[in-house]
Amino acid sequence: MAKNAFFFNELLDTIVERGxxxxxxxxxxxxxxxxxxxxxxxxxxxxxxxVAIAQAILQGYRLLDDSGRQQFFRFLAEKFMPDPDxxxxxxxxxxxxxxxxxxxxxxxxxxxxxREFFRRLNMAPxxxxxxxxxxxxxLRFAKGDKDLEAVDRDLVHLFGAWFNRGFLVLxxxxxxxxxxxxxxxxxxxxxxxxxGWDDLKRRLEPEDRRCFGFFHPSLVDEPLIFVEVALTRDxxxxxxxxxxxxxxxxGKAPTTAVFYSISNCQPGLxxxxxxxxxxxxxxxxxxxxVPSLRTFVTLSPVPGFARWLDAERAAGDDGVLLPAxxxxxxxxxxxxxxxxxxxxxxxxxxxxxLCAHYLMAVKARNDRPRDPVARFHLGNGARLERINWLAxxxxxxxxxxxxxxVNYLYDLKEIEVNHEAYANSGLIAAASAPTxxxxxxxxxxxxxxxxxx
Amino acid sequence: MAKNAFFFNELLDTIVERGxxxxxxxxxxxxxxxxxxxxxxxxxxxxxxxVAIAQAILQGYRLLDDSGRQQFFRFLAEKFMPDPDxxxxxxxxxxxxxxxxxxxxxxxxxxxxxREFFRRLNMAPxxxxxxxxxxxxxLRFAKGDKDLEAVDRDLVHLFGAWFNRGFLVLxxxxxxxxxxxxxxxxxxxxxxxxxGWDDLKRRLEPEDRRCFGFFHPSLVDEPLIFVEVALTRDxxxxxxxxxxxxxxxxGKAPTTAVFYSISNCQPGLxxxxxxxxxxxxxxxxxxxxVPSLRTFVTLSPVPGFARWLDAERAAGDDGVLLPAxxxxxxxxxxxxxxxxxxxxxxxxxxxxxLCAHYLMAVKARNDRPRDPVARFHLGNGARLERINWLAxxxxxxxxxxxxxxVNYLYDLKEIEVNHEAYANSGLIAAASAPTxxxxxxxxxxxxxxxxxx
Amino acid sequence: MAKNAFFFNELLDTIVERGxxxxxxxxxxxxxxxxxxxxxxxxxxxxxxxVAIAQAILQGYRLLDDSGRQQFFRFLAEKFMPDPDxxxxxxxxxxxxxxxxxxxxxxxxxxxxxREFFRRLNMAPxxxxxxxxxxxxxLRFAKGDKDLEAVDRDLVHLFGAWFNRGFLVLxxxxxxxxxxxxxxxxxxxxxxxxxGWDDLKRRLEPEDRRCFGFFHPSLVDEPLIFVEVALTRDxxxxxxxxxxxxxxxxGKAPTTAVFYSISNCQPGLxxxxxxxxxxxxxxxxxxxxVPSLRTFVTLSPVPGFARWLDAERAAGDDGVLLPAxxxxxxxxxxxxxxxxxxxxxxxxxxxxxLCAHYLMAVKARNDRPRDPVARFHLGNGARLERINWLAxxxxxxxxxxxxxxVNYLYDLKEIEVNHEAYANSGLIAAASAPTxxxxxxxxxxxxxxxxxx
Amino acid sequence: MAKNAFFFNELLDTIVERGxxxxxxxxxxxxxxxxxxxxxxxxxxxxxxxVAIAQAILQGYRLLDDSGRQQFFRFLAEKFMPDPDxxxxxxxxxxxxxxxxxxxxxxxxxxxxxREFFRRLNMAPxxxxxxxxxxxxxLRFAKGDKDLEAVDRDLVHLFGAWFNRGFLVLxxxxxxxxxxxxxxxxxxxxxxxxxGWDDLKRRLEPEDRRCFGFFHPSLVDEPLIFVEVALTRDxxxxxxxxxxxxxxxxGKAPTTAVFYSISNCQPGLxxxxxxxxxxxxxxxxxxxxVPSLRTFVTLSPVPGFARWLDAERAAGDDGVLLPAxxxxxxxxxxxxxxxxxxxxxxxxxxxxxLCAHYLMAVKARNDRPRDPVARFHLGNGARLERINWLAxxxxxxxxxxxxxxVNYLYDLKEIEVNHEAYANSGLIAAASAPTxxxxxxxxxxxxxxxxxx
Lengths: 453, 453, 453, 453
What we know:
Number of domains of chain A: 3
Structural class of chain A: alpha+beta
Shape of chain A: globular
Strand content of chain A: 5-15%
Number of strands of chain A: 8
Oligomer: homotetramer
Distance between the termini of chain A: 64 Å
Low-confidence stretches of chain A: 1-22
């Protein structure tokens, strides 16, 4: 302890004298120093010199390699977890006398000191961005590690408070936006790659394009999520049509807002959901800005369709496909089958039914659609409006969904009802065409003795 | 439930159709509606239509009178508390098997649904400001009410995350600041009243005055706390000298930054501490902006001195004062005793010793100084530098402290050491003069058989 | 010249070494130095070190007293006028051969070097504001002085280019405007005094008040002119009603924008006209912002009425008044005659006719209305809509116009026609009531043998 | 006239009713309409409806093709020139009585109504940018056309007032600048092409690059001129080294600011000089921002060297070259001679002397250096510091200057003296090496009987 005291005086001299910037983390005792600093941050000292100590910790963390970082998270998991004895005795006390003050004590006892640790860490200038980056590391390490998963839960809990919808700022992104941000739009676009600045400029044309992002005041110039919108006169059938369109029809007011790309930007915020708010806010704002708009719809990928169908085809008799169907689909193994018009048309209807079935009837463990994009939009209260054939003929689009894309319709008046039915009973709102396609698929199977899956 | 469903469809029609603004809360079922909305906000519906529901709740709350509001907080206390059975069984399970997953379940069980309720409420535009205002109400109701105090603890917990130092923005306030903010500076100044716009302008003169405030990005144009600083060439003896000074000595660079007024602006954020950060940040920034500054010091009130001394005088033999002292102090009962120069000088030294004793030796239950301002600055690591006689001769200054004010010195190199000694052992850092004055007072009492208090 | 060269090297050393700030203008040779600098600014040196020299001149000018400044303008008048010989020979050459290149030479010869001098002076940081301030001085000196008037014409010519409408920026002034600007609004209000910050705040209430000003990018935080507008439901009869109104009628959209005060802010820009543009721009913008507005009207003073009427009354038989009228108006000499209701009513109609006559028929030398405010609005194409009795009962309002005020109507569709008729034929657009009143006044005189004026 | 009146009422109806936007200029009478509008703008109507009329004219102008635009300028030249009779009689009057008021009349008479026309045209929103664009057209038409040149002189005169240094705003351009502006930097870079956004980003790296531009408040997002600066530790020998450098030496403060590219952006502002101010302002600002800087120097092209040398080589005995020199230089006709190391070294010294001679001794008609870049920097007071061999080996660099580039040194203390010597006596400030090289070249010729050129 005496040593510690000396260490800290020395440290704080360093902090005060040398502009709070350069701490020597190069030596072998690096990890130990970080842990001492972390204890200090949580102690009384953290109250008076917290900003300096937090800065030092973040700086020290950045200098660590992956194994050092993993070790640091393990330290947080083990040393800054709730005190088991304290929890046990508070739990026992509550079981015996379940009153308000015992509950309060128990609540305090169960809150991991890590939470306060991260809150104090956030006092450092630029702290929020660095804690988000720390979680990006953590997510790599935590998979299947119960202790690190517990640390992650604490971060998720904090991020839930910090990145509350009420603190997010919606900003339009256009050609007058600083290049620092635009550069990130190019980099973060996760759905339909932006091929350089000219492509970006086209996607920001004020005439018939919009782009909006959520920002957090403490993450300067860093979008959290953004959406790209095309203003058109019809619900589009193909993403290539949207991306290659030259401009709106002059003199004709757009009627349809197409959300054709939504990208999350911060891997460290995985699991903190912004997309639902973003789409609804943007739809509301666009309806005001462009009064001619009547329809708000997505053009979305079906990321899991090919993987599922390939598995079914491989499963043979154990799968959902009839032998004749399997045979008919053999052509999918040809490279570029889609360019053989005759062949493509031969499988179109069958694939369409399969896609409808996949989207509406193939479920994950929690009885929600297995396709993550379907799960997202249907969970938001959107309606599965149309399944589009050869709608994304890029390599990626063919590989993940045999070219299929889906329009999900956001009808502000039905969102609530759809969401409720979905949330309570798992009911999926869908237009008649996809409903019928899925039903036809099902019926064809009904004659087989053992209905599968 | 059927009724509820109908109610909500109707409500959401209202929300969607009528611009999410006008809900009829005028009828007798008002409280019931608010409670239903609150349940809805926490349900699945809250996920899809949360912004609209949160807006409706805040609007409904604003229309309530005090008794309605109190009733609403009681509702939150009773209906949105942790489920006792769940807590009890999770506690029992943990006591039996204290592993990570049981701990996780227990942690979840003890977190009151109120916290999530307030987090979702914050999604409404302007929500943060309104939740802060709600707590202002709550503080009036909660005193001594264990259930409401539990609600308040949840709000304090949330505010701790939301108003984290890392999210606060320091802004200089000067004559180029929008009038909306300046008006609030006049209104919120709690220590030395600002007598109109001319007085304000003097306090913002760039030559020898500074004013800084902390702002939160979600509380637009609303300072959380602000500090007024005078740049001088000496540590000042009197607040009237500071307030009446006409301007710096031309051509002489200031050496001393005097923090002569710190005002918290948001009663709803009581207990969320910003002052410590503000002073240190401002000192750091000023040191950079005005390199000639060497000394950072406050000129602070002693708000509890007169109350304490009056009580001691009233206590007679049970008090700390010797009979001769009591007698000598009788003159304090004269109105305007301070203007009788002879009389004033007769008690000066005695009062000075008493003030030193009060500040350094009179403690509250937690063994910290009873004087709240002393507690604040000493807890920050400042040093009690000088006690100033007739330093605030305003009515208020005389009434609360017989005119005494104190300079607390912020020496950046000593802050950490002072704070640590204070936090660990209750040691108070003080210059030799006040230390000696307090010791003299104590010695005089040492000869009496029974040391008091 | 050698001496000069030395002087300039020394000067520029000073300029370069000492931060271009401190030149010693305290000695007796001050004026000489300024003149040397001025020559330097116009010379080749001005091209390479113009910014520094211009700064030095402006600084030197500021240190001069009035007589020094007057002397400096005389220097500009005499030394920086066009070269008479050059002009004469160029004039002669043109008379002989009036071709393009001779014209060009003549044009150059007649342009006073002063213009280039002021253009270069403007290179100094903050130069524009200081040149405007210099003209404020000049206007005091120039009256009746032909040479200084010539200098002033050059400044007017330059200001015409610099303060071109295309360079002015219209800004809304409201309670979120920096105090530096609001303070100037209080100070510059020339028509209806603003009695402190509370009064100002009332005049900026977003509900039913507006304030707009023109700014120039180089005059930071300095309005050139501003207008105060009340949004009402009727064309107002009284300025006191406007100033004292508590707020709009809740729930009723305003129909009328009342321009009740227009103030020029920069005496140094006298004669450079902004008001016409300001009113029309504000009317256009307000029509867009508040679609319920139908009527755009002023409530304007009649600054010359009392002076004119007093003169006519004094003129006796030589004046325009009939003896009976003179007698009836004798009551105007009573202090506070307006509070004697009976008396006031007795003269109301007569005064009304006189005011109409004054506004429409009493002309200045250029056959335009003698009243400057009438001249301004009628020249803008507005219509004299209504003359209001006891519309400004402030001391000033009574003193200058026996309480009369006038509504001038800006009907965007008629402005052009009105302006044209006024500009071409001096025709005044007026509503029927004032027209009739003026005609009645005239008729009464028609019976007298010699129509006056 | 009656027809006109009708036309204008109709026009103004159009202007007022149809949002001041769409005038039908498609018919055959287009030119006539523009001319009528132009007359109207200068008339009384221009005062009341000037903004609308100016907008209409600018719109009409934009719809014209080149021949229409040329015709319009001819209209301005002929109809809006000074009235010859008026000028002649005013000239005559002045010759007879050269007093102030006659001078004033003559000055007015010689000012072309075009100036007032353009001033009023500038009232239209966005007018300034469009008038600048009009001059871009005019410059194409005016060459050798005396009348149009007279129109151009009037525009130059106005632009001199409008784009006065005092109205320009210096802005740093970096990666946080809006893309609208950055895009123009790429487009306008005239010296060393920017190859896309990555190249641009490198040129804006805060570590060792700077970019600054002058902007005018009325030309939003439009730089007038910009300069690119590299912060280095040595005066650079080669532009390729500057452009390809990866970054500053870490931990070493830069000592040298290299102005390696200056580009004018607005062809319509040709002849209005900004570069001189820009370099000096940027040097001053950089000296403050980066105190380690000691040297401010350019790396500049020698655009006329190859053209001059080729002409001399072609001139044979009539040229400045000795026969042996001519022969030695024959290798320059080889493509890519510079890659033959031996050959290149063989001509290096000779070319170096030729370049020094070209820069310092080859003059244009006005006895200033024939090389425009040399003229610019020497005229600013810079010193010819070093001639660099193979300093720009790009195709362009080889073609225009056989790869030579020049460092011009801006020594703030010498600028004034250099400028003065240059302005008064044509003396060129140069370091000893180039001086010696030029002298050696001259001496070699001194023995020839007839020194040329």
